[in-house]
Design a protein that fits this description.
The protein has 324 residues and is of the alpha+beta class. Helix content is 47%, strand content 13%. The protein contains 10 helices and 6 strands; from the N terminus they run H-H-E-E-H-H-H-H-E-H-H-E-H-E-E-H. Helix 1 packs across helix 4 and helix 1 crosses helix 5. The longest helix is centred in the middle third of the chain and has 27 residues. The radius of gyration is 29 Å and the shape is elongated.
């Protein structure tokens, strides 16, 4: 139910909705003009127009779409968010009617919401000017120059419980038995056995040490093992070797944008803090080591300590092929 959802969101968005509603009280004539070029009026609540951009902003705030991403007004997501915006306006109007906006606590919360909105708008404007297509492509090119392309191996494996069983399977392979068929029949690795033991393409740095040692100098077409590994004894057939494909611009784009955005947020906050007089009224926190920089308090959690676009992906398990 939309009203129930609206209550759940009040802690995050309610103060902002109240601040905007109160600021526009008595200004319905102004509100009747589209706030953005091409905007569409989608509802009217007690004479106050709700625009498609208002609903899209709510969807962005909830993380349902990205900033600038289109949202079809005929979609279910739009309809649900529209109901929530209507609920927020009704609740805010009732709160104003009861003069809750005059309460000192409400005034402080509304002021805090106003400051956050203005700060967000400042950051958005700075980021919009800095995070351009040219900046994205430039950072991508720089990272490609710095990144090292490793050798990738494509291999299949058969994992069994004992060395004797592995040696027995190796003898069958020497007589011409199918590696794929034996993997499906004898391997105990449930993640790969039904794919004929296929591990896909991987680099040795993401594999357990035993695989890295055994496959270090392996050539295409070689049968390696058996060697001991976690879970038993392994036979590996090397099917292909190639130079690692570089990440494409489109695949790297989201991470590059996050990195550039964070870089701009950090830069503007450092400048503002450097020119402001900030007096801490509480005890000093533990001193940071020389040369370390504390992340801005307002930086998004996922961007604090963000790595450049060339940061390597998390290590893959041998039973879960990294690439196909």
């Amino acid at each position: 139910m939309a009203l129930k959802t609206s209550f759940r969101l009040m802690g995050v968005l309610g103060a902002m909705a109240c601040a905007l509603m109160i600021a526009s009280c008595g200004q319905n004539k102004v509100a009747d003009k589209p706030p953005e070029p091409g905007d569409t009026a989608v509802a009217r609540v007690n004479g106050q127009v709700i625009w498609a951009s208002d609903v899209k902003r709510e969807a962005v705030a909830q993380g349902l779409i990205s900033e600038g991403e289109p949202l079809d007004i005929s979609s279910e997501v739009f309809r649900q968010r529209l109901d929530e915006v209507i609920d927020q306006k009704l609740l805010a109007a009732e709160a104003t009617k009861r003069k809750l906006d005059k309460d000192p606590l409400a005034q402080r919360r509304l002021a805090a919401a106003r400051e956050r909105i203005l700060g967000d708008m400042l950051v958005e404007g700075v980021v919009e000017k800095a995070v351009t297509e040219d900046a994205i492509r430039k950072l991508y090119a720089e990272q490609q120059k710095l990144s090292k392309r490793s050798e990738e191996i494509r291999a299949r494996q058969i994992l069994v419980g004992s060395q004797a069983e592995a040696e027995s399977i190796k003898k069958l392979l020497a007589t011409g038995a199918s590696f794929d068929a034996l993997a499906m029949e004898r391997s105990t690795d449930q993640a790969t056995r039904f794919n004929g033991g296929d591990l896909g393409y991987f680099t040795l740095d993401v594999m357990p040490e035993a695989y890295g040692v055994a496959l270090k100098d392996a050539q295409k077409g070689a049968l390696i093992g058996p060697f001991a590994a976690e879970g038993g004894w392994v036979l590996v057939k090397v099917e292909d070797k190639r130079v690692e494909e570089p990440i494409t611009l489109e695949a790297a784009r989201p991470q590059i944008i996050r990195f550039l955005t964070y870089d701009q947020v950090r830069d503007i906050l450092e400048k503002l803090r450097g020119s402001a007089k900030v007096e801490m009224m509480i005890g000093k926190s533990q001193e940071l080591p020389a040369g370390s920089a504390q992340e801005p308090a307002s930086a998004p959690a996922e961007l604090q300590g963000a790595a450049p676009a060339s940061a390597p992906p998390p290590a893959a398990q041998p039973a879960q092929p990294a690439k196909k």
